[in-house]
Amino acid sequence: MHQSSRPGGYLLAAARVAWGAATLAAIVATFVDTASEGPVNPFNFFGYFTIQSNSLLVAVAIGAGLLGLLRPGPQPRWLVVSRSLATMCMVIVGLVYAVLLAPLGAAGGVPVAWANWVMHVAGPVLVALDWVIARDRGPLPWRIAWWQLAYPVVWTAVVLLRGATDGWVPYPFLNPQQGYATVLLYVVVIAAVFAVVSFTVVWWSRRWNRGLRG
């Protein structure tokens, strides 16, 4: 069963728009809270992987939801690829928060409690459930799993460069003050997790043999 003109398809589309709006509200609330402490450096605020991933989620969720309301049915390939990337990123956001940040009491760039819950906990769970349950898409080629790894690679390179130059890092486990050997270990482990999640997301899309409109 896919989204085509069924009531459940419209409910799913509306839910995507609603969650995209809720995530946008969480990002805005976080920005306002940060601004209340002083001038906001946009390179720092949007340097957090959490903020970037949730911003991507806002665009993808609202876009997919509106398209689903206007034109129910299988989604075009570009949108499926975008959803795949957002799903990979959000799953990593949830895993990193649960394993590396929450145990340290670190907010991960989201000091507002309800916004933290939206972006670090509920968001990853709901996005993963959407990808697992919804069947309004076709299978993705395996090469997408490789291509979507380019984003975290570039993000990590920029973060490490900034850590070595101006000293700013978004997360404590990437702080060069603890030694580059330790940072490298974290990077290698997280990169492996990224690869596993990326290929799992693409593999799941291939469980149903539907054509994609490109």
TrEMBL record:
Transmembrane segments: 9-31, 51-70, 82-102, 114-133, 145-163, 183-204
Keywords from the named record: Membrane, Transmembrane, Transmembrane helix
InterPro entries given in the database record: Pr6Pr-like
Full protein name: Integral membrane protein
Species of the source: Leucobacter muris
